[in-house]
Amino acid sequence: MGRAFAETLAELGSNLILIDLPGSDFSFSKQIADKEGINIRSLECNLENPKEREEVISHVNQLDHDLNSLINNAAFTGTSNLHGWIDSIDKQTLETWNRAIEVNLTSCFDLSKGLLRKLRASKGANIINIASIYGEFGPDWNLYEGTSMGNPAAYAASKGGLIQLTKWMATTLAPVIRVNSISPGGIYRSQDNIFVDRYKLRTPLKRMASEEDFKGAIAYLASDLSAYVTGQNLRIDGGWGTW
Question: Collapsing DSSP states into helix, strand and coil, what is residue 145?
């Protein structure tokens, strides 16, 4: 999804700062930069580590550029390979819970807070938090029966917290900075066929999402097209949350 967001903003002429885990492959960024004629800076950071977050915040604040949009996208997801994560509730561990909250929620608050000065000084500044339908709805366990997939409590709690943090920051940072969130539905990632078939039946548009489905929302929320929009959570879920 981060790559899709980068492509979208690059097409709009934005210069980008990409942040990912140490050892990540940033090679695609050169292709985007060359194609769109923009500048891309890549930074390595484990967002679970407060010290590394502090270093990234300091680095970005020292750059001689505006910061018009901050997208908080990194997260432990329902498919992350963590001990005590995709298990029955009695086997989900506090260690994993704390790690998920740190990345999915705390790091979003920390980056937003740490970059406020730069955002406030930039035209049309906005923050976009990537939440989830599971921040609003409980899981339909029938989707997972007979598969190796699951729906961890910490994922739902962190995404629900992120939606509420979005609303809190929206009223707190207005009128200078707009803050909105996006709640994706299920994205097709070669999941078990039985899960995919069940998910399609559960969704009015009868398919799972692709990364392309989120580009329009990012272009809208990151630009002045949404200049009078703040505190909103936009579901992009094929109608999943309608029934």
Answer: coil
